[in-house]
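Quick note —
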Amino acid sequence: MFSYVLSLKPDKKIIFWAKIVVFAGLVAYIGYVVRQQPFNWETVQTQLRSVENPERWVAGLLLLTPINWGFEAIKWQILLQRVEKISFWEAYQGVLTGLTLGFALPAQLGDTAGRILSLRSNRAEAIGASLVSGGMQFYVALVFGAVAWAHHLTVAPERNTPTGQWLLIILSVLSLGGVWFGLVRRRLVEWVSTRPALARFATYWQVAGLYSDSEIGFALSAATVRYLVFSAQFYFALRLVGILLPLDSSASGIGLVFLVKTVTPAFNLLSDLGVREAASLWVFAPFDQGDGLVAAPVLLTATLTLWFANILTPVLVGLIWVWKIKVKHL
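Predicted structure written out below.
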């Protein structure tokens, strides 16, 4: 690992150490909060015993996992059809392969590599489709996150400060900017392709200008449904550990957690583990569920449960296709 860091170019080293600093900050914040409410299994077990019919929350959480990644596969299949026609099952395999490689590589790089290596041809053009897919999910999280932050300011008035208002304005402007980008995407792609310094990369992004409005609409719809599915999974994880908050507060809190997770760089090996936990501790800190504030150990249990169900389990399944790629392309 030390040799790898030394071999990086200066700009790559800056990015690497910036990620380390952010990750250390997240861990430090989690550690600080947990020290205020020391983690102990008795607290968690007491909370778990208070849950009625926990099996239904477990079932909902697990059953939605393949559906979650299924909608991601649908989005990938729609966007890839301009490059290569593939079946839904092939798209599903590519998505899980990308998820698995993203576990060991920077998320977007690993995700793109896994999807591209799963294809038989047209891999350079498919890079653009993968970037569009990731951009759509980012945009959906941004829009829902803006709405969530607006509602959060009403239920957590201590955060309705000038800074909070400015953040809402920024999120709103970025959300509207996504609409503008969608309207001018073809002209923008054409303009960028005429720039001498960027023209050599045109193969990677030209596909973004080929999509029809209906294809963009269908792909965005799949991204939106997927967002709602994994939001429901988060809610089920909260209910599983006995965290019962008003539905609107839960929805806005979940939207903010996913917004933070989306805009924060993912970390190798842990695949955003730590980001969701730190964001959850901050977002849900002001809420009282009737018998006191949400306990940090219980909230950490919920987020880790979600990570195991929604990330680690699909990653283990994706190892099957990663192995096939290695055998096939060595």
